[in-house]
Amino acid sequence: MIKRIWRHPWTVAACNILLVLALYSSLRLFCFFADRAMFPNVSFGHLLELMGGGIRFDLSAVLYLSSLYLIAILLPLPVQWRENLRYQHVLNWLFLIPNALGLAANTIDIAYIPFTDRRTTCTFFTEYSNDNNFVSIIKEGIIQYWYVALMLILVIVALSIGTRKVYGLGLPLKRHAKIKHFLLELLLFVVTAYFSVIGIRGGFGSYTRPITLSNALQYTNTPRECALVLNTPFSLMQTIAVPSYPEPKYFSEEELPEHMNPIHSTGETEMRTDNVIVLILESFSKEYIGFYNRDIEGYQGYTPFLDSLLEQSVTFDYSYATGRKSIDAMPSVLSSIPMLIESFIVTPYSTNTLSSIADCLNRKGYYTAFFHGAPNGSMGFQAYARASGIKRYYGMNEYDGPEAFDGTWAIWDEEFLQYYARVLDTLPEPFMTAVFTASSHHPFKIPEQYKDSFPKGTKPVHEPIGYSDYSLRRFFETVSHEPWFEHTLFVITADHTNELTLPEYTNDRGQYEVPVAFYHPQMPAEKRAEVICQTDIMPSVLGFLNYDEPYFAFGEDALTKPKTHPYAVCYNATVFQIFSDSLLVQFDGEHVTGVYDYRNDRCLRANIVNTSDPKRIAPMTDYLKAYIQQYTHRMIHDQLTVK
User: Fold this and answer.
1) Please, what are the domains in the chain?
2) Which range (199-203, 385-389, 627-631) has the least confidence?
3) Which residue among 100, 254, 284, 406 sits deepest, i.e. has the most Cβ atoms within 10 Å of its Cβ?
């Protein structure tokens, strides 16, 4: 029996997969010691963390590369086919060739990592597409990095020798036993296929997105350490359909900062140490909020508490998100990095060194934390939080309260915000924390005990918005009695818009309109007819605190002084959009394709590109071009911080 199990195709395939995983782990250790100068502060315990995290990416890559092999070896074909030696030899090549190429790329990259601080992605082929001396470069590399070449030979030999090549099914001869065996083999194939997909995706659950390069940040202390967690085949496959950013040259290096400069100078006044709480509300489109829509006849809102809070806050008539997905929000809100072209978290540049509100305030003695009620690792938030300098992450694993999982995504907002309030009361001051709510996410459910308690509206999202607004009310009722409340700045925003119905919002402007507001118990309320964007939150918070060091941000302080460039920028499918307090200009990278006077044409029915005043458009397009050029250059060259 044991012999039959040992010779079974599933056992053979499992042994081969484990062999390749072991070789990747060996290469990870080899990379650590070969490039030891890159990782001076990696302790033994942290190295184990990096090794353990790397297995997740190795498994994804190996299952990708071995997918044809696994299908062929486990598919319950007729026994005479499966046990034919020629067929088994074909299977061996299906396994050996893809995995040998993957291991070779992973090994060779060890010599290249010190020059790039990261694993090679498909941008490599664009960068070197015009080089004619590629062969000579490889020859020189083999000589200079002989130890890498030697390791490559050892790995390929180990793969070739260690791969199990022959198996047998040992089927019984009786017909009914053959049928039973076939059904068992079919079940085994289906189960293996299911778990292989899970392995490729990187986890279970609807809340788990397929892992990308940025998920490696979940295990690292610095972005550079991602080179140890990731492997090269995974990095190549993740970026094979993602084009590298073209670097435009709208302005010379000398002219560029005059039009847009993401390096912000310091203040000279004494820094204040108020606490900071950033509330990122899932799907809270401005369309749902009565405070912003009192001029629309017959309007029905869903946020009575938020309406009352905004009445006591500094608000802006024109406020925008930079993207349409949750993963766009955290970099925009906390690091002032917009979504342009692609979501930052899924680009090849997601492992760049970056700063954030937390990173800046860590230097001033702040305690920093991020809260999200979904399973830890969901949406890549934990990885981003760690990369951006947030010291502590509180997710479902840390949640301490009554059982309140919504069955799909996360802890219900009411319970999680109450947990958040309890934790806040234990934190050392000053603190900077952010919380990302979840209950107004698809599939738009609310707790059973609140059924029929909130207006159902006309879209499925409306009722959960009412529930989340109620949860927010309960949170403020709890924390308003705490001694730290009176000296805390609350930032209120949303990640993105969601289901829209009104013609004022179902257009290229409305689908980016989210609240951006600031509430402080000691700050007078003010309703400003100005433009603000998610990327303005970080500089506005630092401006309010009189932060006294240079920092990097694509936005500007909109809270304590008028913006130098009173615009908001976002990316809409294939065009860049820039908003002033009256105009929307659309730009395709070369030409202005759309101009809308949205103050007089809120539904954007008339494109006035051919009749608009060039003097009004030119400053906006110059700023937008500089913005795009700064963004792409700094992404490509890893310049998202103040050096």
Assistant:
1) 2-239 (no CATH), 261-292+302-560 (3.40.720.10)
2) 199-203
3) 284
CA distance 358 to 324: 24
How many Cβ atoms from other residues are within 10 Å of residue 12's Cβ? 22
Question: What φ, ψ does residue 171 adopt, rounded to 5°?
Answer: -65, 140
Report CA dihedral (79, 83, 87, 88) to the nearest 10 degrees: 140
Of 340, 244, 258, 257, nearest to 589 by C-alpha is 340
Name the helix (H) or strand (E) containing 436.
Answer: strand 431-436
Separation in Å, CA 218 to CA 44, 70, 211, 225 = 18, 30, 11, 11
Nearest to 384 by CA among 342, 339, 346: 346
Q: Is 314 helix (H, G, I), strand (E, B) or coil?
A: strand
Give the H/E segment covering residue 415: helix 413-424
- Listed in order, strand segments (DSSP E) in 255-328 are 263-264, 275-281, 314-320
Give 139-198 pLDDT, tens digit per residue: 666 777 889 989 999 999 999 999 987 766 555 545 555 677 678 878 888 888 888 888
Residue 476, C-beta contacts closer than 8 angstroms, at least 6 positions apart? 305, 309
Instruction: Express each pLDDT in 220-240 by its tens digit.
Output: 877 678 889 999 999 888 877
- Token duo for residue 566: 């009173």
Note the maximum CA span of the chain: 90
Q: At what angle do helices 175-201 and 67-74 cross, to 10 degrees?
A: 170
User: In whole angstroms, what is the distance from residue 275 CA to residue 358 CA?
Assistant: 12
**Buried residues in 32-52 as b, exposed as e (16+ CB within 10 A):** bebbeebbeebeeebbebbbe
CA distances from 127 to 131, 252, 352, 633 (A): 9, 21, 18, 14
